[in-house]
Specification:
Layout: H1 15-19, H2 28-37, H3 39-44, H4 49-55, H5 58-66, H6 68-86, H7 91-95, E1 104-107, H8 123-138, E2 142-147, E3 155-157, E4 165-167, E5 179-180, E6 190-195, E7 198-209, E8 212-218, H9 226-229, H10 240-260, E9 267-271, H11 278-288, H12 293-302, E10 304-307, E11 318-319, H13 321-328, H14 331-334, H15 339-344, E12 347-350, E13 353-357, H16 358-365, E14 368-371, H17 374-383, E15 399-400, H18 407-410, H19 413-423, H20 434-437, H21 445-472, H22 478-486, E16 493-498, H23 514-521, E17 528-533, H24 541-555, E18 563-566, H25 571-580, E19 583-586, H26 598-604, E20 609-612, H27 617-620, E21 626-629, H28 638-662, H29 671-684, H30 690-706
Parallel strand pairs: 1-2, 1-9, 2-8, 9-10, 10-14, 14-15, 16-17, 16-19, 17-18, 19-20, 20-21
Antiparallel strand pairs: 3-4, 5-7, 6-7, 7-8, 11-13, 12-13
Helix pairs in contact: 2-6, 8-30, 10-11, 11-12, 21-22, 21-25, 21-29, 25-26
The structure holds pyridoxal-5'-phosphate (PLP).
The site of pyridoxal-5'-phosphate has 13 residues, from helix 8, helix 25 and helix 26.
Length: 710
């Protein structure tokens, strides 16, 4: 049942069910159905079927319910939907028929599923979203746990002075693809956690992600004090006091959500340390049943999996002992341990003194831990050697599972249609199989090139449309019309750089030698242009300064309108950019990019990477599928590193990338370039797919945890 069902004509009365399951968003036939239902409304609601069905006229609904072509498509989509839900022949069911009764609970602070649900900020959230989608495709018994943030992450505005402004909009919950979880009497199911002596309550929203459910806590309920109602209002805002309260809600509250729903997971997967407190709650439960702390900890250990994402020490959540004592006073009694023992579980020497580190808690207590690329696994073993001082560093028990992306979410529809032609109609089922992708050789150069050009034009139209809307709404002055990319040219070699503006990503590196860059951009015969996008965390002043620097350069007439800065980067825009530019640039300071995933999205769409040998690209680069910034060395001196790396950017652009891009045959096809495009797809798509990743999590970690093996 959905709130939309009563409005729908009998013949199409399952559209509500479809709108409330994000499966539609990664299924081309279903996306197409919404477009056909009411295209202007589809655009106006920014691809939000729930809102569409609320606003659509009855007359239009009656029309399509009589349209035999629409009905045929509708029936086909619903049949596909039912097959997906029935789930009998999934990979998990056929590979592990004895394990289907298990439940994997996946905890994350953010989930990037679709633009209509803005509860993500960047790579970590996109990864969680892709993980849960892929788990559905593979048939894993899987639930997600997180927060419903009524104000989500902020929307970015860049006024003409270039200093990013954060705009928080209240999300209309009725228009989001979420539904409150209620009992059989129609009463909202709620959980509560005692925080600082007072119970804080949360209601639970459910998101259908294919066959999986994602449960999101929301503390904006009547029973709560005003400040507690605000607790889950926004993602990543507030001081460490807000943060510890949020993390108590996620860890302790999240376990209670599962209990309230009658779920007893055999695997708890903590995606990053934000949810580490769940360990304490699970121990408390066992102790309440009469177990000793040691017995309880041993049991919890067998069933917990922890993924760390941050090679930067300052990136880990740390709370002062004072704060931990304030909030957990008495909780240690319920766990059967002393205050000192409790504090020792997360004890870590920070630059400013001993404190409670969420990563250390997870490392101590989880049975299995991994980093998110091979290099990151190695860095993590070095970084956390101190937790296992008696082991040699190579035996520190942190493995690695390299990230991947959910291909159905990130592939351009037009290119996906080509893959259906050349790889076969079942290509999506076998997307992690390298032999399948060898068949790309059969696709003609010209064909691949023309699809790319179409996607490039589409991306530019999209960017210009964004600018036009702001202009029409009176929100843009002429300078902002310029910086938003109106002077971009579809014939020009286009570099894309879009991601969070954290300083280690060195967004301004390519501007290090401005005159040299200027010569490259403004070359008469072979010009180059660059599109930038990305948000800085609202508290990250240096990050905002980088945005301003690039924004000001994009206004500079001497750069000829060949630099654009597009505001409000999000998943929707990420799709256009990673599908439509010619080269994807990434310049992190090695080894701080644990993995990175935007480059995988580009690679899949035939957009070669030009990137530092860090994170995933160390594993992805093969000499023929893109280019390398720097040479993989790490310099002591940061300025020297920047000089060296920037110099390789210019050199490779001048000597390799630009000439290759502009050398065309008689048909206007850059044969050499298309070869790199094809190799980018062939070599990267199968390995960096979330299908390979989720299968690895299953065979290497989940199955072990399900069986309770040490
Ligand atoms: C994929 C994605 C990211 C991750 O980008 P990286 O370059 O890997 O850091 C961040 N934000 C959005 C919106 C994305 O789609």
């Amino acid at each position: 049942m959905t709130p939309l069902d009563n409005k729908l004509p009998e013949k199409i009365n399952r559209l509500g069910e479809l709108a409330y399951n994000l499966w539609w968003s990664w299924t081309p036939e279903a996306r197409d159905l919404w477009k056909r239902l009411d295209y202007p409304l589809w655009r106006k609601t920014r691809h939000n079927p729930v809102q569409m069905l609320q606003e659509i006229s009855d007359a239009r609904l009656q029309d399509v319910a009589r349209d035999s072509t629409f009905l045929r498509r509708y029936t086909k989509v619903m049949l596909q939907f039912d097959e997906m839900m029935a789930n009998g022949h999934s990979w998990f069911h056929t590979t592990y028929p004895d394990l289907t009764q298990n439940v994997i609970a996946y905890f994350s602070f953010e989930f990037g599923l679709h633009n209509s649900l803005p509860i993500y900020s960047g790579g970590l959230g996109i990864l969680s979203g892709d993980h849960i989608k892929e788990s559905s495709d593979l048939g894993l018994p899987f639930v997600g746990v997180g927060f419903m943030y009524p104000q989500g992450y902020f929307r970015q505005r860049i006024p003409s002075h270039g200093w990013q402004e954060a705009v928080y909009e209240q999300l209309d919950m009725n228009k989001a693809p979420i539904q409150l979880v209620q009992d059989e009497h129609g009463t909202d199911i709620k959980i509560s956690v005692k925080i600082n002596g007072r119970p804080v309550h949360a209601r639970i929203w459910k998101v259908n992600v294919g066959r999986n459910s994602l449960y999101l806590m929301d503390t904006d309920v009547d029973e709560n004090e005003p400040w507690d109602r605000e607790l889950s209002a926004r993602l990543y805002s507030g001081d460490s006091e807000t943060r510890i309260r949020q993390e108590m809600m996620l860890g302790l509250g999240g376990v209670r959500v599962l209990r309230a729903l009658g779920l007893a997971p055999t695997v708890y997967h903590m995606n990053e340390g934000h949810s580490s407190f769940l360990i304490l709650e699970c121990i408390r439960e066992y102790v309440a049943q009469g177990k000793s702390f040691e017995e309880a900890a041993a049991l919890v250990r067998r069933h917990t999996v922890f993924t760390t994402h941050t090679p930067v020490p300052a990136g880990h959540d740390v709370f002062s002992y004072q704060l931990v004592e304030k909030y957990f006073n008495g909780f240690w009694d319920e766990m059967g341990i002393s205050r000192e023992h409790f504090l020792s579980l997360g004890a870590h020497q920070e630059p400013w003194g001993q404190a409670f580190n969420m990563t250390v808690l997870a490392l101590h207590m989880a049975g299995q831990t991994n980093g998110v690329s091979k290099l990151h696994g190695r860095i993590s073993r070095e970084m956390w050697h101190e937790v296992w001082p008696d082991k040699p560093v190579e035996e520190v028990p942190i493995s690695s599972i390299t990230n991947g992306i959910h291909i159905p979410t990130w592939i351009a529809t037009e290119l996906g249609d080509e893959f259906t032609k050349y790889l076969g109609p079942d290509w999506l089922k076998r997307r992690d199989d390298p032999t399948l992708w060898q068949r790309l050789a059969d696709m003609g150069d010209k064909e691949l090139w023309l699809v790319h050009l179409e996607l490039k034009r589409k991306m530019m139209r999209y960017l210009k449309d964004l600018v036009r809307r702001n202009w029409v709404d009176g929100r843009a002055d002429p300078t902002q019309v310029l910086t938003g990319g109106t002077l971009l040219d579809p014939e020009t070699l286009t570099i894309g750089f879009a991601r969070r503006f954290a300083t280690y990503k060195r967004a301004t590196l390519i501007f290090r030698d401005l005159p040299r860059l200027q010569r490259i951009l403004l070359d008469t015969h072979r010009p180059v242009q660059i599109i930038f996008a990305g948000k800085a965390h609202p508290a990250d002043e240096p990050g905002k300064a980088l945005i301003q620097e690039i924004y000001n350069l994009s206004k500079h007439n001497q750069l000829g309108g060949r630099i654009a800065f597009v505001e409000d980067y999000n998943m929707h825009m990420a799709r256009y950019l990673t599908q439509g530019v010619d080269v994807w640039l990434n310049t992190p300071r090695r080894p701080r990019e644990a993995s990175g995933t935007s480059g995988m999205k580009a690679a899949l769409n035939g957009v070669p990477n030009f990137s530092v040998l860090d994170g995933w690209w160390v594993e992805g680069y093969n000499g023929a599928n893109g280019w390398v910034v720097g040479d993989g060395r790490e310099f002591e001196n940061e300025a020297a590193q920047d000089d060296f790396d920037a110099n390789t950017i210019y050199q490779i652009l001048e000597d390799e990338i630009v000439p290759l891009y502009y050398s065309r045959d008689r048909d206007g096809v850059p044969r050499g370039w298309v070869e790199v495009m094809r190799e980018s797809i062939r070599s990267n798509a199968p390995y960096f797919s979330a299908q390979r990743m989720v299968k690895e999590y299953t065979s290497e970690m989940y199955v072990k945890a399900m069986n309770g093996d040490e």
